[in-house]
Amino acid sequence: MRARLVAVAGVIAVLAACDRSTPVSPTSDSTEVVDLVPDYAVSPAASVDAAGIGSAELPDALRLTVEQKAAIVALHDAFMAATAADVAALRAIEVEAKAAIRARKPRDDVRAILAKGDPIRARLDAAFKKLQADIWAVYTPEQRVWIEAHRPRDCGATAAKLTDDQVKQIRALEDQFYTSVKSDLELIRSIATEAKQAREAGKSRDEVATILARAIEPQRRVANAERKLQADILALLTTEQRRAWSCRRG
């Protein structure tokens, strides 16, 4: 993050796109989610897919190169660093709103608390749009054509809300994912940098290829971690929520 990346087929991102474009209004139901932080702002795994720009399902012939993956990871790192303060501010507003709900404050009072997050979310949305554009520029024309052809369909009325507990569990899974792949992503970045320096130093194609080959294993481990994250998140969803995911991906 949301550093991170390599886009996972975005289960949580899809549900976010369907269901969480605006803060959830509080009700008397204690399971209602008060969740102001967009998933794209906190998830190292799902940030790109959250907007329908994903690379996890690219066919082998169009898979990301080491350099592309390293470039996208760097963009995500910069995004997460630049938005960290705003994410922390939204978290504090969430805590305040939940405390107000527990204290049975009037709905208007809770809404006023939530409204304090509006300008913060606007800044995050603007930053994320720039991230999308920057990542889109990393893809080749052939990759862009494939991605455009496989964008998820709108889920419309089939969206299913996540509970507060699901949000917490999914965030925990995403945190675990990032922790597990962080060293491999850093290794991929360092290999890409080394390969670039070798080219600039006039090294042969074979020498550069030997350097890049060292990224094969960390790329495989990251891909396996992405698949595990997707499976673990799907296991947390209800039948209705899985149907919402399917309508986006089908």
Structure characterization notes:
It is a single chain. The protein has helices spanning 11-19, 66-102, 107-115, 118-136, 141-149, 164-200, 205-213, 216-236, 239-249. Helix 2 (66-102) runs antiparallel to helix 3. The chain has one domain (11-249). The chain is 64% helix and 0% strand. The protein has 250 residues and is mainly alpha-helical. The two termini are 26 Å apart.
Largest sheet data: none
Number of separate domains = 1
**What is the number of strand segments?**
0
What's the Cα radius of gyration? 19 Å
Helix content: 55-70%
Mean pLDDT: 76
Spatial gap, N to C terminus:
26 Å
Beta content: under 5%
Shape type: elongated
Number of helices: 9
Q: Structural class per helix/strand content? A: mainly alpha
Order of helix and strand elements from N to C terminus:
HHHHHHHHH
The residue ranges in which pLDDT falls below 50 over 5 or more consecutive positions are: 1-32, 44-53
List keywords for this structure.
single chain; about 250 residues; 9 helices
Which secondary structure elements does this structure contain, and how are they paired or packed?
Layout: H1 11-19, H2 66-102, H3 107-115, H4 118-136, H5 141-149, H6 164-200, H7 205-213, H8 216-236, H9 239-249
Helix pairs in contact: 1-9, 2-3, 2-4, 2-6, 6-7, 6-8
